[in-house]
Amino acid sequence: MDYPKKLLEEVKERSKGMRLEGINSGSGPKHPLLMIVGEAPGRNEIVNNIPFSGDTGKELDKSLKQIGLSRDQVYITSAVRSRPFSVKKVFSKRENKEVIKRPNRKPTKKEVLAHAPFLNYEISYADPQIIVALGNTGLERLLGPGHKISAEHGKVIENTPILELNTAKDGYVWSKKKYTVIPEYHPAAVFYNRKLSDDIVKDWEVIKPYIDKERESNE
Predict the structure, then answer these.
(1) pLDDT digits (tens, 9 = 90+) for 49-84
(2) What DSSP state is assigned to residue 35?
(3) Domain count across the chain
(4) Can you say whether the dihedral through the CA atoms of 43, 148, 79, 35 is positive or negative?
(5) Best exposed site among 75, 82, 83, 218 by fewest CB in 10 Å?
(6) CA distance 135 to 130
């Protein structure tokens, strides 16, 4: 996805003063069988400009393969398209001195709002029917605060509007179009809790009948 220059300039202006690095554009076809909305890119994604790359990407690819999909059939993006980072002073044994580290972190609600024009544009461009929200940030961006992956993973929310940036561009309104939204654990969750592996497999199986139906309607 090549964002229009005007859109890039708008989001950069909205993001001024925020600890965000680079731009990693979303990727995928128009009318995908599935759209994925994650949290934000990490360092790998900023370097190679590939959404969900590295070990997290391998986990996502396994889930897609499980339901008969490849990346070229899916539009992949996230609530924030820059890398949120924090600044920490730590002691480096290798260098024998205190150094500055800039690790990844969860984006703030202000950062999600600053990047809302990107997701609006991508949803309008891709025009998906099925959207998978990976993690709480993506889920809340689509359906609002109070929704949690831990409570809703693997559930199918059919015929629902999603949140779009309002005309004043300072908040959200509900979309006129309705979608099928399916909350799922973020692929990286398995690195912190291996017990989630079975749940992730079961939850993605829930998606398969909806993908099969979408395939039939596109034929």
Answers:
(1) 888 988 999 999 999 999 999 999 999 999 999 999
(2) E
(3) 1
(4) positive
(5) 218
(6) 16
State which residues form the domain around 80.
Answer: 5-212
Neighbours of 75 (CB within 10 A): 26
DSSP state letter for 41: -
- 155-190 burial code (b ≥16 CB/10 A, e <16): eebeeeebbbbeeeeeebeebeeebbbbbbbbbbbb
Query: What pTM was computed for the model?
Result: 0.93
Report the alpha-carbon distance of residue 130 to residue 145 in Å, rounded.
20
Mean pLDDT of the chain: 94
Question: CA-to-CA distance for 148 and 137, rounded, in angstroms?
Answer: 9
CA distance 178 to 130: 10
Q: pLDDT digit string (tens) for 92-107? A: 888 888 889 899 999 9
d(C-alpha 133, C-alpha 184), whole Å: 6
Task: For residue 27, report the phi and psi dihedrals to the nearest 5 degrees.
Answer: -150, 140
**Is residue 219 included in any domain, yes or no?**
no
The domain spanning residue 16 has which CATH number?
A: 3.40.470.10
- CA dist., res. 37 & res. 90, Å (int): 33
Quick check: is 55 in a domain?
A: yes
Contacts of 86 (CB under 8 A, 6+ apart): 19, 102, 103, 105
83 sits in which H/E element: strand 83-84
In a domain, 218, yes or no: no
What is d(CA 162, CA 8) in angstroms, rounded to the nearest whole number?
23
CB atoms within 10 A of CB 154: 17
